[in-house]
Amino acid sequence: MAGMSDFRRPPPVLDMTPEGEFREPPKPSGLDAFLARLGGAAVLIGAMAGGLILAALAIFFIGLLLPVLLGAVGVAALSLWWRRRRLRKMGIEPGGIRIVVRR
Description:
Helix content: 55-70%
Radius of gyration: 36 Å
Shape: rod-shaped
Order of helices and strands: H
Number of strands: 0
Number of helices: 1
Distance between the termini: 59 Å
Low-confidence stretches: none
Mean pLDDT: 87
Oligomer: single chain
């Protein structure tokens, strides 16, 4: 820390009038206004592109999960069908399907 305070920085320059008021900043030129509008448009386009990327990623991951969901539904349907078939073979007519969740 002591090494940081050894060097001397020049004091900041304040652009003031002899009366103690700050001077007016220079007026922006036409090029400055154009570049400001162009920068604003670039930020807007970048935000829209970022939103499109997020939407595309969401659709991609949903597309990846859809086959997993369909496979799980198929396994569940096959399991229910097999259990009802086994009950019929034992001479028990199965009623409505009841699903029990154990925690």
